[in-house]
C-alpha cells in the first residue's frame, strides 16, 4: 500500500471511529490527513470506497494478528484448544475493546454488514480455512478425530460463528468477559466435536 493511500486509510479509520460512518465526510478525512479534499479524491472516489478500504485493511490486520497468535501458541507447545482460542481472541478481542472506547463501533459494524459484505465474507473464509487446516494437522498428529459426520470445516464454521455471536452480544461484553466466554465456547465446541482415539 502506498504511503499516501495508507495515511488516508489511517486518517479515515480515526474519523470513522470518532464520528461514525454517517457523520464522517471526506472533508473530515482530508483535515485529519492534512490534505485537501482533492487529495483524498485522488485515491478514493467516495466515502463508501474509502470505508471499504478501511474495512479491508482492518480485517487483513486482524487476520494476520490471529494467525500470528495461533502460530506463537503452537510454537510454544500449546494444546489445540489454546491455539484456536489464541487465534479467535486475537481476531475478535480488538473489536470488543473498540466498543469500550468508541460510541460509533456498532454503527460501523452495521454499515460494514451492508457495504462490506464481500470483504467480510472473504476474511471469514480465510479464518475458517486457517482453523480447519490447524484442526486437520492436529487430528493427524494428536490421535483425535472429529465425531462421526462432523468435518474440520464444520468445526471451524461453528467456532467462527460462535465467536462472531459473542462479539455482537447485547449488552456488549467487556473485553475480560468476552475472553472468558470465548475460552469456554472453544472448549465446549471442541469437546462436542472431537473425540480422542483409544
Describe this structure as you would to a colleague:
A two-stranded antiparallel ribbon has the order 1-2. 80% of the residues lie in helices and 3% in strands. The N and C termini lie far apart (51 Å). The chain has helices at residues 3-23, 26-33, 37-43, 47-75, 80-101, 105-115, 117-142, 152-167, 175-193, and strands at residues 144-146, 194-196. It is elongated, with a radius of gyration of 19 Å. The protein folds into two domains: 1-45, Homeodomain-like (Arc Repressor Mutant, subunit A), CATH 1.10.10.60; 47-196, Tetracycline Repressor, domain 2 (Orthogonal Bundle), CATH 1.10.357.10.
How are the SSEs ordered, and which strands pair?
Layout: H1 3-23, H2 26-33, H3 37-43, H4 47-75, H5 80-101, H6 105-115, H7 117-142, E1 144-146, H8 152-167, H9 175-193, E2 194-196
Structure, briefly:
Helix content is 80%, strand content 3%. The chain is elongated. By secondary structure, the protein is mainly alpha-helical.
Rounded average pLDDT: 90
Low-confidence stretches: none
- Sheet-strand content, in percent, reads under 5%
Dominant shape: elongated
Strand order of the largest sheet: 1-2
Query: CATH H-level name of the largest domain... which superfamily?
Result: Tetracycline Repressor, domain 2
Describe the largest sheet.
Answer: 2 strands, antiparallel
Number of separate helices: 9
Amino acid at each position: 500500500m502506498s504511503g499516501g493511500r495508507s495515511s488516508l486509510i489511517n486518517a479515515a479509520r480515526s474519523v470513522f471511529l470518532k464520528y461514525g460512518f454517517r457523520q464522517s465526510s471526506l472533508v473530515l478525512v482530508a483535515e485529519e490527513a492534512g490534505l485537501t479534499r482533492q487529495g483524498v479524491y485522488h485515491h478514493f472516489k467516495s466515502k463508501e470506497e474509502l470505508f471499504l478500504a478501511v474495512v479491508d485493511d482492518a480485517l487483513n490486520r486482524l487476520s494476520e494478528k490471529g494467525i500470528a497468535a495461533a502460530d506463537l501458541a503452537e510454537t510454544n507447545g500449546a494444546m489445540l484448544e489454546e491455539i484456536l482460542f489464541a487465534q479467535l481472541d486475537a481476531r475478535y478481542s480488538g473489536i470488543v475493546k473498540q466498543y469500550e472506547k468508541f460510541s460509533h463501533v456498532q454503527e460501523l459494524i452495521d454499515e460494514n454488514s451492508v457495504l462490506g459484505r464481500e470483504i467480510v465474507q472473504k476474511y471469514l473464509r480465510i479464518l475458517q480455512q486457517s482453523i480447519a487446516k490447524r484442526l486437520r494437522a492436529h487430528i493427524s498428529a494428536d490421535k483425535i478425530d472429529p465425531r462421526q459426520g462432523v468435518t474440520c470445516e464444520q468445526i471451524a464454521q461453528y467456532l467462527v460463528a460462535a465467536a462472531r455471536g459473542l462479539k455482537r452480544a447485547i449488552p456488549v461484553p467487556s473485553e475480560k468477559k468476552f475472553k472468558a466466554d470465548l475460552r469456554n465456547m472453544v472448549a465446549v465446541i471442541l469437546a462436542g466435536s472431537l473425540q480422542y482415539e483409544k
